[in-house]
């Protein structure tokens, strides 16, 4: 029998779902595999979030401290395995082969084949994966928007975590495999995600979901798309179809505004996701003429009132920490109920947080509580 890796923590977790990402592996074989994977510098892009939320006043600076000032020991060990990438933004733009770029990444984790359905929807044939491990009906629906810098599509590895979220939150999860840049720049991903939401809100019951209990979830780039879907639904008068939005480590500003957030420079390098990674993702996703479009940068929207309740999760040593907090603050000031927490000692998307550790338990409980409060089961 071949050797297998048993994940103890979830690192590349948020590639397809609502928890950290990857995995701190349990034995030496798997550790060597992890090191080999992480030695591929292009993997950095997998975690690069994407999207933006822009500022709403020229002079305002958003800062949030998580108090610890110290990396969690497990996170510190993880970072020791990450090779430094000293390339400049210009070098990344010149040297990146996107076909090869997308091949980088960890191997997939198997899950039961009969727990997923593959379909294509709308006239654009948007690929959707539907996960229902319990094979029950009347479950809450989670529309999942994967991370990947707007550059990486839904991967086989990410699928496992969408399946795991369906299991953890007792839901039917619809994972949207939206179009990615640079072949399909903004607004292609946004259009796919919004059209998928509308279709799912009308057809989700066919797959075991309860269309009166829909949450949209996203990580990094996916969190941007989740925010935009909610705003666009509000504009079209159908925001009441969405009962909850869940955003993990969202990138919330356009590339010309990054220095307004202290965490972008405090955590610019050395914490897995770098400021350069972010700029590369954002500039690959959209043309400069679109930077001030609120469908690219959701925080630019002048009125956030009337949006669904929101879960917003950030990490102390994430360059995006303060951007996430800025959006949470704006939502709260607009009267939107927000569950938010910055996780001390953690990095982007809680990527290195041990699966059974206290932060992961808090993370799961936070999302479960929000789901149960925002869209309680029918009696």
Q: Quick recap of the structure?
A:
By secondary structure, this protein is an alpha/beta fold. It is built from twelve helices and eight strands.
CATH topology: Rossmann fold
Protein structure class: alpha/beta
How confident is the prediction overall: mean pLDDT? 85
CA-based shape: globular
Radius of gyration: 19 Å
> Strand order, biggest sheet?
1-2-4-3-5-6-7-8
Low-confidence stretches: 1-60
SSE string, helices as H and strands as E? HHHHHEEEHEHEHEHHEHEH
| CATH homologous superfamily identity | Alpha/Beta hydrolase fold, catalytic domain
Task: Kindly describe this structure.
The protein is an alpha/beta fold. The chain has a single domain, classed as Rossmann fold (3-Layer(aba) Sandwich). It has twelve helices and eight strands. The protein has helices at 28-38, 44-47, 73-80, 89-95, 98-101, 156-168, 188-203, 221-235, 262-266, 275-285, 321-333, 358-374; strands at 116-121, 126-131, 139-145, 172-176, 209-219, 244-248, 310-315, 338-343. It has an eight-stranded mixed sheet, with helices on both faces. Helix 6 links the parallel strand 3 and strand 4 (172-176). Helix 7 crosses helix 8. The radius of gyration is 19 Å and the shape is globular. The protein starts with 27 loop residues before the first helix and ends in a 5-residue tail after the last helix. The model is unreliable at 1-60 (pLDDT under 50).
Topology diagram in text:
Blueprint lengths: L27 H11 L5 H4 L25 H8 L8 H7 L2 H4 L14 E6 L4 E6 L7 E7 L10 H13 L3 E5 L11 H16 L5 E11 L1 H15 L8 E5 L13 H5 L8 H11 L24 E6 L5 H13 L4 E6 L14 H17 L5
Parallel strand pairs: 3-4, 3-5, 5-6, 6-7, 7-8
Antiparallel strand pairs: 1-2, 2-4
Helix pairs in contact: 7-8
């Amino acid at each position: 029998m071949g050797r297998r890796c048993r994940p103890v923590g979830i690192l590349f977790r948020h590639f397809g779902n609502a928890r950290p990402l990857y995995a701190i592996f349990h034995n030496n074989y798997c550790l060597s595999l992890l090191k080999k994977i992480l030695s591929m510098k292009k993997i950095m892009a997998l975690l690069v979030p994407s999207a933006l939320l822009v500022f709403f006043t020229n002079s305002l600076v958003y800062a949030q401290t998580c108090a610890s000032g110290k990396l969690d020991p497990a996170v510190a060990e993880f970072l020791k395995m990450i090779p430094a990438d000293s390339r400049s933004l210009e070098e990344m733009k010149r040297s990146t082969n996107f076909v090869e770029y997308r091949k980088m990444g960890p191997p997939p984790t198997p899950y039961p084949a009969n727990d997923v359905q593959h379909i294509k929807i709308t006239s654009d044939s948007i690929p959707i994966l539907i996960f229902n491990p319990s094979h029950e009906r009347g479950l809450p629906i989670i529309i999942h928007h994967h991370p990947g810098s707007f550059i990486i599509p839904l991967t086989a590895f990410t699928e496992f975590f969408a399946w795991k979220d369906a299991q953890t939150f007792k839901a039917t999860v619809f994972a949207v495999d939206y179009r990615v840049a640079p072949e399909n720049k903004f607004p292609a991903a946004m259009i796919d995600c919004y059209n998928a939401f509308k279709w799912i809100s009308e057809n989700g019951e066919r797959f075991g979901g309860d269309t009166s209990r829909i949450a949209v979830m996203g990580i990094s780039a996916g969190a941007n798309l989740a925010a935009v879907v909610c705003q666009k639904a509000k504009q079209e008068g159908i925001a009441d179809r969405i009962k909850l939005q869940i955003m993990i480590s969202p990138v919330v500003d356009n590339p010309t505004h990054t220095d307004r957030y202290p965490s972008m420079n405090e955590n610019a390098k050395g914490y897995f996701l770098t400021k350069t990674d972010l700029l590369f993702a954002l500039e690959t996703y959209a043309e400069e003429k679109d930077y001030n479009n609120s469908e690219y940068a959701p925080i630019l929207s002048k009125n956030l009132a009337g949006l669904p309740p929101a879960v917003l999760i950030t990490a102390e040593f994430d360059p995006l920490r303060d951007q996430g907090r800025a959006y949470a603050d704006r939502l709260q000031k607009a009267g939107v109920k927000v569950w938010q927490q910055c996780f001390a000692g953690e990095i982007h998307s809680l990527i290195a947080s041990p699966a059974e550790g206290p932060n992961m338990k808090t993370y799961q409980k936070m999302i479960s509580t929000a789901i149960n409060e925002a869209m309680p089961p029918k009696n």
